[in-house]
Amino acid sequence: MSNYMVELENVCKSFPGVKALDNVSLRLKSGEVLALLGENGAGKSTLMKILSGVYTKDKGTIKVFGEVIEDINPVKAQELGIAIIHQELNMCEHLTVAQNIFLGREVTKNGVLSDKEMNHEAKKVLNRLNIDIDPETIVGNLSVSKQQMVEISKALSTNAKILIMDEPTSALTSKEIDELFTIIRKLRDDGHGIIYISHRLEELEDIVDRVMILRDGQYITSMDYKDTTLKEIISYMVGREITEKFPRIEKEVGEKIMEVRNLNAGSHVRDINFSLYEGEIVGIAGLMGAGRTEMTRALFGADPKESGDIFLDGEEIRINRPIDSIKSGIVLVPEDRKRDGLCTKLSIKDNISLPNLDLLTSKMGVVNRKKENEITEETVKNLTIRLTNSDANAESLSGGNQQKVVVGKWLARDSRVVIFDEPTRGIDVAAKVEIYNLMNELKDQGIGVLFVSSEMQEILGISDRILVMADGKITKELDIEEATQDIILEYATKFDRKIEMKKEA
Amino acid sequence: MESNNSSKRFKRIFSKRGMGQVITVSIGLIMLIIVFGFLNPNFFSYRNISNLLRQIAPIILIGVGQSYVLITGNIDLSIGSVVGMSCMISATLMTKGMNPWLAVCISYISSIFIGILNGKLISKAKLPAFIATLGTMTIARGIAQIVNNNYNTDSIGAKAEGFRNFFYYGKTLGLYNTIWIALVMWLVFNFILSRTRTGRHIYAVGSNINAANLSGVNISSTITKAYLVSAVCSATVGLIITATSGMGTMDAGNGYELYAVASSVIGGVSTLGGQGILLGTIVGASIWGVLQNGLQFAGAPVAIRNIVIGIIVIISVLLDIVVRANKNVTKSKSKGKS
Amino acid sequence: MKKFITLILVLSLVFTVVGCSAPKDTSSDNGQNAEDVDTGNNGDDNGADKKDKYKVYLITMDQMDQHWVTVDQGAKKAADELGNVDYQWLAPDVKDDAKQIESINNAIAGGADAILLAANGPDAVTATLKEADSEGIKIVYVDSPADFPAVQTLATDNEAAGKTAGEEMLNALKEKGITSGKIGVVSVNASTDSTVKREKGFRSAFEGTDFTILETQYAEGDAARSKDAAANFITEGVVGIFGGNEGSTVGIGNAIKEVGGEVIGVGFDKSDTILQLIDEGYLLATMAQNPDVMGYEGMKTAVNALEGKTVDKDVVDTGVSVLKKD
What we know:
The structure holds three protein chains of three kinds.
Chain A: E1 4-15, E2 18-29, E3 32-37, H1 44-51, E4 59-64, E5 67-68, H2 74-80, E6 82-85, H3 97-101, E7 108-109, E8 112-113, H4 115-128, H5 144-157, E9 162-166, H6 174-189, E10 193-197, E11 210-215, E12 218-224, H7 230-238, E13 256-264, E14 272-277, E15 281-286, H8 292-300, E16 307-312, E17 315-317, H9 322-328, E18 330-333, H10 337-341, H11 348-353, H12 357-360, H13 369-382, H14 399-411, E19 417-421, H15 429-444, E20 448-452, H16 456-462, E21 465-470, E22 473-479, H17 485-492
Helix pairs in contact in A: 7-17
Chain B: H1 5-15, H2 19-39, H3 46-71, H4 79-95, H5 100-123, H6 129-146, H7 161-169, E1 171-172, E2 175-176, H8 177-195, H9 197-207, H10 209-214, H11 219-245, H12 256-266, H13 278-297, H14 302-333
Antiparallel strand pairs in B: 1-2
Chain C: H1 2-21, E1 54-59, H2 66-82, E2 85-90, H3 97-109, E3 114-117, H4 126-134, E4 138-142, E5 152-155, H5 158-175, E6 180-187, H6 193-205, E7 210-213, E8 217-218, H7 223-236, E9 238-243, H8 246-258, E10 264-268, H9 272-279, E11 285-289, H10 291-306, E12 315-317, E13 320-324
Parallel strand pairs in C: 1-2, 1-3, 3-4, 4-5, 5-12, 6-7, 6-8, 6-9, 9-10, 10-11
Antiparallel strand pairs in C: 11-13
Helix pairs in contact in C: 2-10, 3-4, 5-6, 7-8, 8-9
């Protein structure tokens, strides 16, 4: 038979409008660490959710330890020995380590909890992995890395043979990563099979045996790590033609509009410095966790910052809250438009007028209906927002039109800099082009345009300059002429080298 | 520092989560007692202490019930109405000549029904706890009114003397029975909460319902059990009131759910779930009772009493939320985001 | 599923509320008599229409108190006797100004000819009463008047009754040879006019004596909490306690019973439990109001007014009976 622990063959999964997995196959041997790689949206977490029973596959076969398994659910997966450790940890912070490890499987004697025994067992599991934690510690008091270790211990205590780890190192320091990798190696040596999902390509070499790459929901290739290079991996992750057309306009770069110096806000925004000029669109590229959204939010005043000087048209402005930013003319079109960009239960008209009430109200605070209608009409016309009636709820619009409302409300007030965070996410192709045209309009009018995007093609198609972020810092500034997908991805994965090399004889 | 077993256990008891607040409020309670004792010589008389303990007993009971529910991350607004319903059902049946103990059983059964209803509405039908228990609050109060045709009842009669003594007027070993009832029920429920699987699950559900679910905890059953405990405690208080007054009043228990929340919160049970120990609830209930009692002796107008209690509750909740918020901020800063 | 359950719950809520505030009595069905019922008065028509059936509503503070139930019984009795009244009792489920205003509005909309009203407070509902008055509806106050002109007020003179209660207590204390000491008062709250007046009357009886009346404890008429308050008073060493309404009185009676009856208790209102406590000797006396008289006579006055007859007195003191152990 096969000596594979897990075999996924030709798995397909679709969601409304999106084919997440298209005939993907995966094989995991006992005693190996397999890295599952791919860009955002490649299908990695969907595949793992199918394996761990959270999603059901549409097509394909799943074999665990050689047996075909139908209808996996989370409980069954656990029984089969599959454990998944999510990026967002699933711990009950008020309970102790031992209590968390035994949650749902508590040991009792005559109905009474045998805490002593559970503590003892927990300590045994922790010791197996050389983790030094007192099982009676409250989980909430542990650092994130230690919590992660507790989750791993929990998985082991359920006799999981197959461990799936999703972005395990994103919140860890280098020393903690060291400790984690020691554990992983031990598990591997003990015969466990580990699927390791991460964007931090540079860490792979310390831990990974084989590599598997997905792109756009499809299986691309897999090989032993030692048989490939980082460069090759990157090109497989990214390699496709740019097929979409991006309307690009030429414009001469003019005066400096905005300069940001020394922006620091927590661990995701570190020492950011850049400038923005009239007549250009600047794209911010990077992977999830790079800190792009956090940077725009810190800039806009939505999140507190530790330091940062912002100059608009040569003058320094103080931004502590969004209203400061708005008043100065810097506006933000947020990433999650339904949650942060619109009041979905309010009418389109209300949404457009909301941040502009100061322009629409009389001294006494009464809203001038006529002006409100005028502003709404103008915005709808200028952006060709397709709607039946401006009194309808904002949530009734399509994604693209919603996005136009979000942008439109800012344009009504002569902004100076417009920051877009993932402006075309979840929008169909035609509407995307309209948004690009809008951005070009702004560029043409000399309004500063800054945009964050995870779609490589978009960044390359529309930007004049590109800032690549990784790990909270800007790792590279590129002019569009010198930018390629490979270079961008290379700088997007340049984390501070966190791993100390352990040379083994 | 020697690490012999007894000092370790001592340390463990005091570092147990929740003890911090319990100790703080206990100190507050002691101070209150000293102040009131000073203001009023009668405070420490045998009669007053006996009365006081007996006044605190029902508050402890509803506090225990509400604490169970709060720890799961929910709330029970129907407590007061279930108290009234139990009072009216038991009294009405007794005035009609039924054996008091049979009436007691029926009161408990009807309250259990409300408890299960609460649990299922919230865990299966996914109604927010606030709404669901608001609904059962109205239903239970309605039942309390209808049961005797919209009147308060007549006297429950001489046949009920035994019942009245058991629940209220009688003494055992020098303490009123009511106190013993509260004590015993507290012991039982505290044991369940701290030493059984059900109790562990109750904390887990309140701490992180998703993690609990993924770990195989039966969420529906756990939440329903919490509401059952609350219903049983409320029913008992209703019976105590019937015994006290010797009749059933339709608006018995009015507002009790909030006193129950106050007692729990003062004692360190968090309204956000997952945290708190019943020892704290006793202290919270005692503070409530001592304030009621002491302020009367101090001659304070009732309005002052309400304001004082309100302020204490707000401060307790604020402390709770502020401490939790601080913990969350430091947590999210070290987690990966986009 | 969630929506369905919410719908069911909301419907049940609605039905319950409606059910509870539904009137207890429907119109009196006395069969149609061709002749007029003899009211002993063939007076002139003061421009008022003599109708076949007058629509009269009784609006009380709530539906729960036995007190209101008795008012209703009295009114119903009169309506039955008179024969030309279409009578309905409306009341909110709890004492609440907004709800009472609603009830009055409902009565107006329902085509009331007269309203018997126990107003929540002197000013709470005057606006609606103006409306009622402008529609020509006759207003008669039962138990608690409002600050608006009406045909008549039939109520207990609460202050006088309170004073009587105080005097009863004083006499009893004197008989026991007690001429000084502390007295406790357990009442409802500071905003219910009737109980506030009773307390005032009670306190006035003690002016010039050597007794000190302590700070009143308000327990919203809850019998159990009143008992706690009374027990605390007893611990403080009071010689007498006054209860401002039924619930308060039950409470103080139980508290006195518990300590064996040394303290003199006097209260208000009548109920089975209170009578029992008096019988057992734990309460000295209770001031029993005559709510049935309020309802009965109030109905009669209303109909008289509707028939255009003159109404002599503005205020009728329906009085209290001092109930003691006989």
